[in-house]
Design brief:
Blueprint: H1 2-17, E1 19-24, E2 35-37, E3 45-46, E4 52-54, E5 64-67, E6 74-76, H2 78-83, E7 87-90, E8 101-102, E9 109-110, E10 118-121, H3 123-129, H4 134-141, E11 145-147, E12 155-158, E13 161-162, E14 167-170, E15 173-174, E16 196-203, H5 207-210, E17 217-223, E18 235-245, E19 250-260, E20 264-275, E21 278-279, E22 292-297, E23 300-305, E24 311-312, E25 317-331, E26 334-345, E27 348-349, H6 351-354, E28 357-358, E29 361-362, E30 364-369, E31 373-383, E32 392-410, E33 415-435, E34 440-461, E35 467-469, E36 479-491, E37 497-513, E38 525-541, E39 547-558, H7 562-566, E40 569-572, E41 575-577, E42 586-599, E43 603-622, E44 630-633, E45 636-663, E46 666-680, E47 686-688, E48 696-704, E49 708-717, H8 727-730, E50 737-738, E51 744-745, E52 749-759, E53 764-771, E54 791-799
Parallel strand pairs: 1-7, 14-17, 41-45
Antiparallel strand pairs: 1-4, 2-3, 2-5, 5-6, 8-9, 10-16, 11-12, 12-13, 14-15, 16-17, 18-19, 18-54, 19-20, 20-25, 21-24, 22-23, 25-26, 26-31, 27-30, 28-29, 30-32, 31-32, 32-33, 33-34, 34-35, 34-36, 36-37, 37-38, 38-39, 39-42, 40-41, 42-43, 43-45, 44-45, 45-46, 46-47, 46-48, 48-49, 49-52, 50-51, ...
């Protein structure tokens, strides 16, 4: 009996010895999502909401490292952990080089070991900023410029590239698809900022790892994962949040809960937001006012005088996001992750079209996007069992559906046009890591993607509700396929130098059939098969512990998609884009040099310069359709344009920033981006590049304590004169202010803002804020809707 009791006690002690609790040194509060690993960060184990982690898979390690953003990294042996009763305390370190886990190669790495620039947005940042949408989250970070055509939108611009020249990745699955257009895209709002574990912005070409579209950069969104209990009991977490914003009467509700067992984890998240018409500021150009709006009176389209011209009538919409994730780890060698994402919106008014006037009367009676629907179902299978092929292997298969539609009717007309697109996307990625020796390893993998497009068009008589077919936006039944294979080699040449090189081959195939019912196309099919080779070479140099210098050379490509080859649509008033089947890939050649310097633990400076050259650029140019330079489209004589490989472009600029610890708990930081871009015009002249945004950034003063934090910050955006507007922007006077000569231009602006959070007790967090304190009336460059005026925000979050 004595032996049984002793054995039971020993087993319990041994079991306890495998579970470590990580806490904050000062507050003793358990720390969640600490990265715990030995020599391979891809075998890392995250702490759960109780700060606990089972380290038994690392039992053969000499040392175990503990890393969390904002804290000093610490490494301890098993004997040291035992001496500390398996408790680890991390000390805050708000200023550091690296100390962030990123996934530039589709696997986890320390940011200080990656030669290209990567910025990181944490849940802590999101919680304080309280963004209404993920587009707002990106904009408020200061890393990305975001354009908005309407309230329900947000199109990111990175290093002079945007739309289908930047890549959106969700849980290592690409969101970009065959109908991502060169016009502004709104797909980032399909992601729920409240369900993100982190967001990584990878600057510069990422085609070696991610394939087509990754020219300006990659936005890598990682959603929350379920947690394990690390024991025989049940781990339950839950939270509920509600938020109100005054500028558009935002009413948001968010709920999230998770269950964790020893080998199973489940997480559910849902968010619903309702946004009313947006109120602009009172101090700024009168050109942005909304003097009249359109409505029906007694069944007749009527231009109504707006009693409050600062209220942007017909901008309201609502949105729903749902996420379900399941995680299963049967043993130390395998892990399975399933994710389901669903997002939908109400109809979203296309505000920039609704404000177009002709002799004081709206041009459009109706112009709105139908519900933007997105669904993704993905399964990730990771093997941690080393073999002769790889030390780590991961398979990700995903199925996505997209649905979007456009609906427009001219003022005083009875014909309402409906054009609807549905797309099914299937993808599979197989990624490997193989260690060659203690200093080097390779990352390699293959990818296959299949997209199929359904596109229909109808016109409706709003009096009789009779519907008849009209031309669709894309060739119905079009198919786009992509296949790729990549290899990346990383070598720690010494303690100070790290070299990384990579190569990828991609094969793109698309097929489209054109219906000649409405247009006499000079062709009936378009078939394209094209290959692309891209490469990268980068060097990381640490001349001293507090210095880091990066040099990175890379190429990227974007293959023509269905939107490029097959679209027919009015891109702007008086112009129509027609199909062009004779296209090839565009390539970018890029170089960047980055310097990071840490002065003790008080000050960090960073400067990154970059240059990119875009060759065979896919751009819109004047075109002829059956020998005609103009055709009738939806009842309007329109100039014919088409996407063509007709130009080159170049972009150069720099990012700069600093973090300064003024005193304990008080930090000042700033980010600044300058860029300039030009492209070759159809007459050979150089003209400003549309997506090279004017300088932008933010400066913020942050005070943090255990139970509260406050941020006072400024956001700013430079001017773009009429002469520096791209020709396509000069043709959009409705969205710009007027200079002294009556020409459109984008004025500079600056806002002052305040955000604060207070933990009322262990369970309740109160966040408040005032955006645009001075009530500026401003419109970010190229945007079709004026930004919010003075905006009061309040949210309450309850954590179980």
């Amino acid at each position: 009996m004595y032996k049984i009791i002793l054995l039971t006690f020993f087993m319990a002690a041994f079991s306890f010895a495998q579970t470590v609790t990580v806490k904050d040194t000062d507050s003793k509060i358990p720390l969640e999502l600490v990265t715990v690993y030995s020599t391979d960060i891809n075998r890392a184990l995250p702490t759960n909401s109780k700060g606990k982690v089972d380290i038994s898979p690392l039992k053969n390690s000499k040392q175990i490292s503990f890393k969390l953003l904002g804290y000093e990294k610490i490494a301890l042996s098993f004997s040291e952990l035992s001496q500390n009763n398996y408790e680890v305390f991390l000390k805050e370190a708000p200023i550091a080089i690296g100390n962030v886990v990123v996934s530039a190669n589709r696997w986890d790495e320390d940011r200080s070991d990656v030669p290209n620039t990567i910025e990181y947005i944490s849940p802590k940042d999101v919680e304080l900023q309280n963004p209404q949408t993920t587009a707002d989250m990106l904009s408020q970070s200061g890393f990305v410029f975001v354009q908005k055509s309407q309230l329900g939108g947000g199109s990111p611009m990175i290093r002079g590239f945007a739309t289908n020249r930047v890549l959106i990745v969700v849980d290592n699955v690409r969101m970009n698809n065959a109908i991502f257009r060169s016009g502004n895209l709104q797909n980032v709002i399909s992601l729920d900022a409240n369900s993100l574990a982190n967001t990584q912005i990878i600057f510069g070409p990422g085609s070696v790892i991610y394939g087509s579209d990754a020219l300006g950069g990659v936005m890598n969104f990682n959603t929350l994962d379920p947690q394990f209990s690390y024991g025989n009991g049940l781990l339950f977490n839950g939270s509920a949040m509600t938020r109100y914003s005054s500028a558009n009467n935002e009413k948001t509700g968010h709920i999230q809960f998770s269950f964790g067992l020893e080998k199973w984890g489940f997480l559910t998240s849902a968010t619903y937001s309702d946004f009313s018409d947006l109120q602009m500021g009172s101090n700024g150009p009168d050109d942005y006012l909304r003097p009249v709006y359109q409505d029906k009176i007694n069944g007749i389209d009527t231009a109504i005088v707006n009693p409050d011209p600062e209220l942007q009538k017909l901008s309201a919409y609502n949105q729903l996001n749902i996420m379900q994730k399941i995680r299963f780890k049967p043993n130390e060698d395998w892990e399975f992750n399933y994710g389901f994402h669903y997002s939908t919106t109400s109809d979203v008014p296309r505000y920039d079209r609704l404000i177009e006037l002709s002799k004081g009367i709206p041009k459009s009676a109706q112009w709105y996007y139908g519900p933007q629907n997105w669904m993704m179902s993905s399964l990730s299978i990771t093997s941690f069992d080393p073999n002769f092929i790889a030390d780590l292997s991961k398979l990700i298969v995903a199925y996505q559906t997209f649905e979007e539609s456009r609906h427009d009717r001219k003022f005083g007309k009875n014909t309402l046009n409906h054009r609807t697109e549905k797309l099914n996307a299937i993808s599979a990625n197989l990624d490997f890591i193989k260690k060659i020796n203690d200093a080097s390893q390779i990352y390699y993998g293959v990818e296959a993607i299949h997209n199929k497009v359904e596109s229909t068009g109808e016109e409706e008589n709003i009096k009789t509700h009779k519907r008849t077919s009209i031309s669709s936006r894309y060739p119905d039944g079009s198919v786009w396929n992509s296949f790729g294979a990549y290899l990346t080699y990383k070598n720690n040449l010494s303690e100070d130098y790290l070299l990384q090189t990579g190569l990828r081959y991609s094969l793109i195939n698309l097929s489209a059939k054109f219906d000649r019912t409405f247009f006499s196309f000079p062709f009936t099919t378009a078939d394209l098969t094209t290959g692309a080779i891209t490469g990268t070479a980068g060097l990381v140099w640490h001349p001293q512990k507090d210095w880091q210098i990066n040099l990175n050379l890379s190429t990227g490509f974007r293959a023509p998609n269905i939107d490029d080859i097959g679209k027919i649509f009015d891109s702007e008033p008086g112009a129509v884009i027609v199909p062009n089947p004779n296209l090839k890939s565009e390539y970018v050649y890029s170089a960047e040099l980055g310097l990071w310097k840490l002065f003790t633990d008080k000050l960090k400076l960073e400067v990154i310069g970059f240059y990119s050259y875009l060759d065979d650029a896919l751009v819109r140019r004047n075109f002829k359709f059956n020998g005609l330079d103009s055709i009738v489209y939806d009842g309007t004589i329109s100039r014919v344009d088409a996407i063509q490989n007709a130009a080159f472009a170049y972009i150069y600029g720099f990012h700069a920033g600093f973090d300064l610890k003024i005193i304990e708990n008080l930090k000042l930081s700033s980010k600044f981006t300058y860029q300039k871009g030009e492209e070759e015009d159809d007459n050979g002249d150089k003209t400003p590049l549309r997506h090279a945004a004017p300088y932008y950034g933010n400066t913020q003063l942050v005070y943090e304590r255990e139970r509260f934090n406050f941020s006072l910050y400024a956001e700013f955006n430079g001017e773009v004169s009429y002469e520096n507007l791209a020709p396509s922007e000069q043709e959009k006077p409705a969205i710009y202010a007027k200079d002294n000569n009556g020409n459109p231009y984008s004025p500079a602006w600056l806002t002052l803002n305040f955000k604060g959070g207070v933990k009322l007790n262990e369970n309740i967090l109160l966040n408040v804020g005032v955006e645009n304190i001075t009530d500026q009336r401003y419109r970010p460059y190229s945007s079709g809707i004026t930004a919010a005026g003075r905006n009061f925000i309040a949210s309450v979050k309850y954590n179980l």
